[in-house]
Amino acid sequence: MPAEPDATVELCAIDAFAPEIYRVAAAQQELHDTVTLELVPENGARPVFAPGQFNMLYAFGVGEAAISMSGDPTAGGGYVHTVRNVGAVSAAISGLKAGDQIGVRGPFGAGWPVAEAEGSDVVFAAGGLGLAPLRPAIYQVLKHRERYGRVAILFGTRSPGDMLYRQELESWRQRLDIEVDVTVDHADAEWHGNVGVVTGLVRRATFDPADTVAMVCGPEVMMRFTAAALGDTGLAAGSIYLSMERNMKCAIGLCGHCQFGPDFICKDGPVMAYDRIAEIFALREV
Ligand SMILES: Cc1cc2nc3c(=O)[nH]c(=O)nc-3n(C[C@H](O)[C@H](O)[C@H](O)COP(=O)(O)OP(=O)(O)OC[C@H]3O[C@@H](n4cnc5c(N)ncnc54)[C@H](O)[C@@H]3O)c2cc1C
Ligand code: FES
């Protein structure tokens, strides 16, 4: 006899599709195509999330996009999201101003292993906008700096003009208890720093490959080469975590849009250990 559909599951699923109404408390232009929005709930709730999780942001009348939290998880009061304008939905979200409304579903997904990394060295490796989903984990580690070994933040960006969170990077760089190394693909006349890809920073960062957790976020090609460079240092694949991106629809493991081998990126990810995905990740077309 066929199994009866579980009414509880169906009701939960329907709830999960209903966005909560949030209001834009502040909008800050980060780069020519990238904006950071502070969103506060209209219902006065205090949203809680883990670093690495994402929300589905709904621009009314246009559509939804998966966007990671980029703010301090302990700040309370709302969500911070950094959005790059690449298409219809992200353009509508990027165009919002203080006071505008937006729909929010979430938080969804598995986050960075911030607690598991306690006692170990930590390497954050970000490419471009990939620094946004890593930033909540960086805040957590810096807030509890004494719980970790050496901490390195390695950041690669296209050009000095494309550098996300430039002032914050500079303030992190002033700290004596972390290593911050930045590189650009293309320098300009003012740039006197590193030129080249982020893998070059991995090779000279100081960490103990036998006891390090690496968290990597950026374009897939960057993550592929960074994971390989980390592996070359002797770091185990199970200690390297990547944040995966696929087109999302339901965000709760129902529609199959984000399938990645046997996993769904929306519920089994987006943060996944490299040993779990390395084989499929090596196939570019998946
Ligand atoms: C878990 C997760 C977290 C994300 N976090 C952020 C974030 O913090 N900030 C941010 O700006 N964006 C983030 N994204 C990407 C964002 O969801 C897409 O850029 C957005 O859906 C694009 O929608 P659009 O309608 O504006 O563009 P579309 O018209 O849908 O697409 C424009 C271009 O982007 C490509 N694209 C669309 N969606 C994706 C995707 N998910 N991955 C790769 N390429 C895509 C399309 O192929 C096309 O080339 C995240 C995606 C995921 C899955
Ligand atoms: S977005 Fe529907 S299963 Fe992941």
List its traits.
25% helix, binds flavin-adenine dinucleotide, Rossmann fold, 2 domains, 286 residues, binds FE2/S2 (inorganic) cluster, globular, alpha/beta, Elongation Factor Tu (Ef-tu), domain 3
Walk me through what this model shows.
The structure is a single chain. Helix content is 25%, strand content 30%. It is α/β, with parallel strands linked by helices and 286 residues long. Mean pLDDT is 93; it is low at 1-9. The chain folds into two domains: 7-108, Translation factors (Elongation Factor Tu (Ef-tu), domain 3, Beta Barrel), CATH 2.40.30; 121-281, Nucleotide-binding domain of ferredoxin-NADP reductase (FNR) module (Rossmann fold, 3-Layer(aba) Sandwich), CATH 3.40.50. The strands form three sheets. The chain has a seven-stranded mixed β-sheet, sandwiched between helices. The chain has a six-stranded antiparallel β-sheet with strand order 4-3-6-1-2-5. The chain has a two-stranded antiparallel sheet with strand order 13-14. It is built from eight helices and 15 strands. The two termini are 36 Å apart. α5 (198-204) packs parallel to α6. Bound molecules: flavin-adenine dinucleotide (FAD) and FE2/S2 (inorganic) cluster.
